[in-house]
UniProtKB/TrEMBL annotation:
One Pfam assignment: CMD
Key word Oxidoreductase present: yes
NCBIfam families: ahpD_dom (TIGR00778), peroxid_rel (TIGR01926)
Alphabetical keyword list: Oxidoreductase, Peroxidase
UniProt cross-references to PANTHER family, sorted A to Z: CMD DOMAIN-CONTAINING PROTEIN, SI:CH211-175M2.5
Top-rank taxon, per record: Bacteria
Domain Carboxymuconolactone decarboxylase-like residue range list: 44-118
Source species: Achromobacter aloeverae
UniProt protein name: Alkylhydroperoxidase
Amino acid sequence: MTRTTPLAPEQVPAESKPTLDAFTRNLGFTPNMMAAFAQSPIAFNAWATLLGALSKALDVKTRDSIGLAVSEVNGCDYCLTVHSYTAQHMAKLPADDIILARKGQASDPKRDAALRFARKVIETRGKVDDADLSAVRDAGYTDANVMEIVALVAMYSLTNFFNNVFDPEKDFPAVAPAGSI
C-alpha cells in the first residue's frame, strides 16, 4: 500500500523541477519514487547531487551490485526492482551475478570483496572489524575507494529507507521479494 502519492508534473515544486525533469529525460519516464521524493526539494536535490557525484565512483557493475546488496539487507523491494533492472540492462550483469549481488557476493574476486565489505558496513552500521577493512584493501581497493563504498552504502540506504517508509508503487519489472532468494 503506497503511503504517498507521486506528484503530477504540475504539482512538482519549482526547486525540484529541473532535477526531476533531467531524470525523466535520461530514463524516458518519471519513476514513482522520484515523483514522490520531489515533494521535498531539499532532500530530493541533496540525494540527486550525491547520486551524480557517486556515479563516478568505482565501476557500474560494482555500484549496481552494492545497490542490490544494500537493498536486500534493508528489505527494500522497490529498490531491488530498480537495481535488478539497471544491473541487467545498464551494467550488463548476468542473472546469476544479480542473485549473488543480492547476497553480498560476486563471481569477480575484486567486486566480491567490495560487496562483502558493503554488506558488512550495512549489517554492522559501520562498525567493521580490522579484518574486514584489510580484506577489501587486499583486494586492491584504496582508502578513497573504501570511502566511496561507504558513501554508496549510505546513499542506497537513504533511498531504501525512503521507499520503505513511503512505499511508492513499483514501476520496474518485479523481482522475487527481499529475503526469498
